[in-house]
Design brief:
alpha/beta; Spore Coat Polysaccharide Biosynthesis Protein SpsA, Chain A
């Protein structure tokens, strides 16, 4: 059984699959791992490239969506299928360097307290357009003000977490952007690590700033509501024998 499952949503990323897999192989050899790629109804040959790479990288498992469900749905499907107790996620566009993945799983694998639930990457020196960086700063500022989640960058795809803890969270679309707040609200400790960022290797983004802003406000209000209504009491079973 792998110790770590690396979950990667991809949509029309055929030009990035091979380089991402090569870097994972180079930098994650200190643990037993699997790679679960979720092809989110790509219209290019992403799935075919993945199938071709399975000979060279036998750790790859491919999940395919016939209808696009978005990033959170893809991540959730990957976690459900994962065999590892620790999950690491990254975006499939190559902007999240796979060399940063050990920063995510090492604290979780060595945690002796049983309290660490999430290790969240925070991008430094972002290689995005000025408009995307500005939109991200505004969204992160608003989110932090409302949720008090203590992180400056929840949009980073590089995250590591306990599989069981993640599956205990309420699922909803775009939940991947609110994991620090959700994990904290469920009593888990979180750790933040700085990670590098780089330009997209190939292809183009599947999202626009307008799309993110439109759904982001309603998602934020929904997450705030969920946290306020969270079940706080967790009963302990008492033995009635004797």
């Amino acid at each position: 059984m792998p110790a770590v499952s690396i979950v990667i949503p991809m949509k029309n990323e055929s030009g990035n699959v091979e380089s991402v897999m090569a870097e994972i192989s180079e930098h994650c050899g200190d643990v037993d791992y699997e790679v679960i790629v979720i092809d989110d109804a790509s219209t290019d040959d992403t799935a075919a490239v993945i199938q071709r790479l399975k000979t060279k990288h036998p750790q790859i498992r491919l999940l395919q969506n016939q209808k696009s469900g978005g990033q959170s749905a893809a991540v959730h499907s990957g976690v459900l299928a994962a065999k590892g107790s620790v999950i690491c996620t990254l975006d499939g566009d190559g902007q999240n360097p796979p060399s940063e993945i050990p920063k995510l799983y090492q604290p979780l694998l060595t945690d002796e307290t049983g309290q660490l639930g999430l290790v969240a990457g925070q991008r430094i020196d972002r290689q995005d357009t000025a408009s995307k960086r500005w939109a991200s700063r505004m969204a992160n500022s608003l989110r932090s003000h409302i949720l008090h989640d203590g992180t400056r960058d929840t949009g980073c795809g590089l995250k590591g977490f306990r599989r069981d803890a993640f599956l205990d969270l309420p699922y909803f679309d775009h939940m991947h952007r609110y994991l620090p707040a959700l994990f904290k609200s469920h009593g888990w400790q979180i750790a933040l690590v700085d990670v590098s960022h780089r330009e997209r290797g190939a292809g183009r983004s599947n999202y626009s700033n307008i799309q993110r802003a439109f759904v982001g406000f309603f998602d934020l209000m929904g997450v705030a509501w969920l946290i306020r209504r969270r079940k706080k009491a967790r009963p302990t079973e008492v033995s009635l024998d004797g």
